[in-house]
Amino acid sequence: MKKIIYLAFLVTAVSFSQNKFKDQPLVSEIFTADPSAHIFNGKIYVYPSHDIIEENPLYDDCGSQYAMRDYRVLSMDYIGGPVTIHDVALDLDDVPWAKRQFWAPDAAEKDGKFYLYFPTKDKDDIFRIGVAVSDKPEGPFRSKKTAIEGSYSMDPSVFKDDDGSYYMYFGGIWGGQLQRWDENNNYTPSGCETQDNGIPNSPAISPRIAKMSNDMISFAEDPKPIRIIDENGNPILTKDHDRRFFEAAWIHKRNGIYYLSYSTGNTHYIVYATGDNPYGPFTYRGILNNPVQGWTNHHSTIKIADKWYLFYHDTQLSGKDFLRNVKFSEMTHNSDGTIETITTLID
To answer: Which residues are identified as catalytic?
Structure first.
């Protein structure tokens, strides 16, 4: 039955839109989103969310339609080469503390071990971040029995700096629940309201950073907020939906500059800000990726050989916001350190 539904989606997608897509999906056998791209053992590995087909998906203000239950790793020997879809890397049933929803993951390698970082809701329906370990980049991964102590919200991404230190960036408002946590890491139960509590001129909610311990399965410090400021040093405000943080924090480093890129959520941009250290502050610089087809816009960046690439998703295959497909596009840094804006959807 699910195969029939999937084929129906593909047929629908042919006539869904007259838009022309700059790039094509990496794979069409499964639906994938939120790609985190890395080079391990000389190969390109992509760690996406695995969108699933449900005959009657549950819709609510907290994103229950994004009901992923396992992770599948993609790999290719070179950019643009044939893509392998590996067997299940981790299943929700194999995470003792988890209740539902495997959202956007990331991965890291240290001393020959591979670590899969994943957000999922615990038994109380609170997002926490877990970690699972494998001897192979594609898994299978074995989950730790508990979530990372001190973790919360979602969209973990782990950055390795030049000195060998690892940092986790995380957080997302709306269904990602970051708005429930203050900057001292205290939790206040609430719904899925995302914003200003009636104060639109307040500084926008910040993503979080925590240095990883040597064991790669715990934090070495309490999570801290990351300041995102404008060119005058003023904080980006809650009401500034074109520039404020929503989700999908990602770091890359080039020529000594740290680039924090992230999704603006309901305005559908991937934007970026720059700083001179992993903790920021980061100064807003511009748009990295214009809106794609579909509600969400979530990405990663990676250098392969002497070129940089943006990995992202859209809904070309299905036309459904919760059934997405991963793609990539070349990206260009300018001589002044800015990044050329990428447009992948051409009307």
So the answer is: 34, 247
